[in-house]
Amino acid sequence: MLEKCSTCSQSFPEETLKRMVQIVGRKAYLNYICPSCQSIVLHNPSYYYLIEPKTENPNVEKR
Ligand SMILES: [Zn+2]
User: Where in the chain are the domains?
Assistant: First the structure.
């Protein structure tokens, strides 16, 4: 399954693309970033790696 890179608009296999969150104002957008664009995006402070929550994490405090 091919997905488009949100930065360069080229199609890549989904597993090649990194899911990153772009913060614009108070909104967060999910972007797919190809390996060649990742180096650019990493220098952009409005992009964050999407951290997938682990269901089993004994270190997480329950509130
Ligand atoms: Zn790209």
Answer: 2-49
How many angstroms is it from 42 CA to the middle of ligand 1? Answer: 12
Ligand 1 centre to CA of 20 (Å) is 12
Chunked into runs of 10 residues, the chain (63 residues) has average pLDDT values of: 95 94 93 94 89 65 60
Q: How far is the CA of 34 from the centre of ligand 1 (A)?
A: 4
Give the pTM: 0.72
Torsion (CA) 25, 48, 51, 35 in degrees, nearest 10: 140
**Dihedral sign from CA coordinates of 29, 35, 38, 40:** negative
Give the Å distance between the CA of 26 and the centre of ligand 1. 24
